[in-house]
Design a protein that fits this description.
alpha/beta; 3-stranded mixed beta sheet; globular
Length: 278
């Protein structure tokens, strides 16, 4: 995560967090010859901190990561506004697949031989098989709200682990007395949308008192750490429907965060209850 004098930036993976990091480093870097910028940046400070990995079991658990969660914000900075970036879940799944971090030995949920019993071509999985792999090994989290139990997909569970004020324990159900209790347990985060990132980033930084001349580079800055798409048509209608059902919670958050809908989470949960009873 990145701590500045005016905010805490949570690096939510595969949502252009590296782009934001580079922007902030560029913005806070003051050349000795830039007397005017040095004057404008008085009182500004920035540092990047690593936190123990809490979201993954296996070799990475407890190891330093730049992808710290809300629950890991140091106490002395917990009064600052929290900012992160949110990306369409379908696009994020494609990016996760193409980036390929899931293939690394340290990222495996069990030994490679055991995985290859189900997926012999694991290191060259097709996209649809990658989604099946995620569901099999990471899609077993349970959300319990007012005695109603809901299954959570990998993205949905990871979102809660990132933005809950208190860190949930891996392998344990996420339990809340009510939907308001769940919402109150989530941090108040200002999310920027990936597909509007440059404009929203400039607007936000202006709100934090930065000057136009110091922000001009953002609009022309190229994307970084970009996954190369090797095919078209990752999702057909059937696969989209399956993912939206399995990852219902993250799509409900997307409706609220990206489109400004209210009550999308409760409506989605109610629909799942109706589906399960029919």
């Amino acid at each position: 995560m990145i701590i500045t004098e005016s905010s805490v930036w949570i690096a939510y993976p595969k949502t252009a967090s590296t782009f934001v990091r580079d922007v902030l480093y560029n913005l806070y870097n003051v050349d000795r010859a830039s007397i005017r910028k040095r004057w404008r940046m008085r009182g500004r400070s920035m540092k990047e901190i690593e936190c123990p990995e809490l979201r993954e079991s296996g070799p990475r658990y407890g190891k330093p990561t730049l992808h710290g969660t809300v629950s890991q914000i140091p106490e002395e900075y917990q009064h600052l506004p929290i900012i992160s970036v949110f990306r369409c879940p379908l696009d994020r799944l494609i990016s996760l697949y193409e980036y390929g971090d899931w293939k690394k030995e340290v990222a495996l949920p069990t030994d490679l031989e055991a995985i290859q019993e189900h997926y012999p071509d694991f290191l060259s999985l097709r996209f649809s098989d990658f989604l099946a792999y995620l569901k099999q090994y990471y899609g077993t989290s349970q959300l319990v709200v007012a005695d109603h139990c809901f299954s959570l997909g990998a993205l949905s569970a990871d979102f809660l682990r990132f933005f809950l004020r208190e860190p949930p324990r891996l392998g344990e159900d996420l339990v809340f007395d009510s939907w308001p209790h769940l919402r109150q347990s989530l941090a108040d985060v200002k999310f920027l949308a990936t597909h509007r990132l440059r404009d929203e980033l400039v607007a936000l930084l202006k709100e934090h008192g930065f000057h136009d001349q110091d922000l001009q580079f953002i609009q022309s800055k190229e994307k970084v750490n970009r996954s190369q798409r090797k095919q078209d048509g990752y999702f057909d209608d059937q696969l989209t429907k399956m993912v939206r059902h399995h990852e219902w919670l993250i799509f409900a958050f997307a409706d609220e965060i990206l489109d400004g809908e209210t009550g999308a989470i409760e409506r989605s949960a109610k629909s799942l209850n109706v589906d399960s009873m029919s």
